[in-house]
């Protein structure tokens, strides 16, 4: 009743203001309703509307106890207000800005139609419901047909500060909609210290969003991320410690293609838009309606607060309920892996080091195997077979590895075909490749030495799926490998080849194709305990992949650490108990060099040990993997490293042993907010190295400051809580934190888990003050709070 009365009062005020008899209207309305509460409400509303937000006669309002939106006479969003505090997330702008824009094309040209071009706009309450507003734009003159119209609906949630937005476009006769940009929110305030969190695979956070969204010349910078693929989930957050955060998400469960974008306006403000891509571009349809809701909201907190809100929705969707880990479909050997060795080349450089490490570690070691194939890396795909060392030698090596209980997954890129390969011509692969809007293949060049291009194959085509599944089947059945690493798996592309039979522009055909591909591989190899792994992570792939490679723990090694982004475990915070994450560029050596690449670019000493000044970077990468709940991984490992780099290899094994004792937290636990540690920072040396970086120009070295210890927090299914601590300090260190920051059991027994075991260290009672933990040099432990 209250919401309905408030809306009617706003309407009355607007009418009254135009006739200069506001007070008499208030009195009449109050006498009619005979409620003193309404009189007070009206009076407060009068003051707020006329003095706080300066509504004009044509302004439209929608609000409840959580949010308030105001729209001007063209339907542009002018107010996005947190009801409790009255804080407006938007700054006033001199010129109106559109709420939506549609990119159209016709047989002759391309153009845009936006909400501010309509000559007629109206709004109404849907079904008399005070929490839902419908807005309609019509009469666009010569831009569109006479009966062309756009309708948008905004609905406020009754239980939390979020709103759901939908849009329908009708009667676009003779026009093809490319992108529907909605909602468009302009002039978002960015208080000092505003940060932007984006789930690019594992996740990244920009501590200074204002600086990130501006170009060096002072003009605004626009950033856009696509889903599914580049974004692992559908939630982004602009957050600040002293102002309401700007929360955006989506409730699409079909993994339809879409994009999210933030941009700066060059004056310290941010703009946001969501891009939707209609599926029916070429079938003559003249109506498009969003099949899901775009979500806008506010929150108080940081990126983890936003992740927790999204988690409450995402973990109740089909991809979580059907995830292979939740359904216990992941092969047991993959779940039990204590360490991954990511090596490249012939079996002597891959399987034998893994066997040696397993004997030293005394935990299961599995192999992540690149460059086993007969073709050159990033050039000759998918001509993987036969293996480069020969079929019989490969099979014999796998047999020896299995006798030592070492398992191996082998590299097979799941979408690339080398355009200079014989098979590209012989099999007519170009017909089944992804095409751009111009109908042409888009070459992708990864190999910096040969510059030879690959093409992405369309996942919708049975031709490509059968080609890939057949190779995977032969590798698993004939070569006895234990699984396939499907490189570039958690990605999707837009294909515009009408001959493929999929929708053009938008749609879910890529994910549907991947589902069919993974199902086919599993059905072909049903008798084997096969693991399918993929690069990156993504919610839509949870039912299809057993393992997800998450490399942001080593972001500094392959990407400029001064780019404004810091890695965060965004995906883990939402989906940790639903996926096994592994992977790390963490290495003690220079990168390897493929023997099938041009000899003139080969380094003099492949796999040369790095200078020990970079050891703390290795510690940091291993520590992140540990406290963020990933299976540990080391790249380019050789048995000689055990005595050549004893501190580094001991550290990675220490963390692996501790993790093995706490898998109910670090594999199956729910991500919690980690306590803030009181520890000093230190400047450490960083090396930028990956397969291509550093091969020709040597090590790129830089320095950056990091805390000397990091933490993670987890809740097990039984309700007990664990705090993982890892030091990267070369000296003993005291770590202190405030336990009240965690929702710990009121009274609990406290245990300390280390590599050699678990021991009781006392009782914990709430209110007992700060906790201090002593860690030796390169020390680590888990504090377990047992109810």
* Helical run tally: 18
* Average pLDDT taken over every residue: 91
Low-confidence stretches: 1-57
Net shape: globular
Distance between the termini: 45 Å
Largest sheet: 11 strands, antiparallel
* Helix share, percent: 10-25%
Strand content: 25-35%
Rg over alpha carbons: 29 Å
User: What structural class should be given to the helix and strand makeup?
Assistant: alpha+beta
Q: Number of DSSP strands?
A: 42
Describe the structure using short key phrases.
eleven-stranded antiparallel β-sheet; 23% helix; disordered N terminus; 787 residues; alpha+beta; eight-stranded parallel β-sheet
Describe the structure.
By secondary structure, the chain is of the alpha+beta class. 23% of the residues lie in helices and 30% in strands. The protein is built from 18 helices and 42 strands. The strands form 8 sheets. Strands 7, 8, 9, 10, 12, 13, 15, 16, 19, 20 and 30 form an 11-stranded antiparallel β-sheet that branches. Helix 1 (2-19) packs antiparallel against helix 2.
Task: Give a concise summary.
The protein has 787 residues and is an alpha+beta fold. It contains 18 helices and 42 strands. Strands 7, 8, 9, 10, 12, 13, 15, 16, 19, 20 and 30 form an 11-stranded antiparallel beta sheet that branches. The protein has an 8-stranded parallel beta sheet with strand order 31-29-28-27-23-22-21-32.
Chart the SSEs and their pairings.
Layout: H1 2-19, H2 22-33, H3 36-52, E1 60-63, E2 67-71, E3 77-82, E4 87-88, E5 101-105, E6 110-114, E7 120-125, E8 132-138, E9 149-156, E10 162-170, E11 176-188, E12 195-198, E13 204-206, H4 209-212, E14 222-227, E15 235-240, E16 243-250, E17 258-264, E18 270-276, E19 287-289, E20 294-299, H5 303-314, H6 318-321, H7 332-336, E21 339-344, H8 351-361, E22 365-370, H9 391-403, E23 407-411, E24 416-418, H10 422-426, E25 444-445, E26 453-456, H11 462-478, E27 483-486, H12 509-524, E28 531-535, E29 547-549, H13 555-558, E30 566-567, H14 570-575, E31 580-582, H15 615-627, E32 633-635, H16 641-644, H17 646-660, H18 663-666, E33 670-672, E34 681-688, E35 700-707, E36 709-715, E37 721-727, E38 733-737, E39 747-754, E40 757-765, E41 771-775, E42 780-786
Parallel strand pairs: 21-22, 21-32, 22-23, 23-27, 27-28, 28-29, 29-31
Antiparallel strand pairs: 1-2, 2-3, 3-4, 5-6, 5-11, 7-8, 8-9, 9-10, 10-19, 10-20, 11-18, 12-13, 12-15, 13-30, 14-17, 15-16, 16-20, 17-18, 24-26, 25-26, 33-36, 34-35, 36-37, 37-42, 38-41, 39-40, 39-42
Helix pairs in contact: 1-2, 1-3, 2-3, 11-12, 15-17
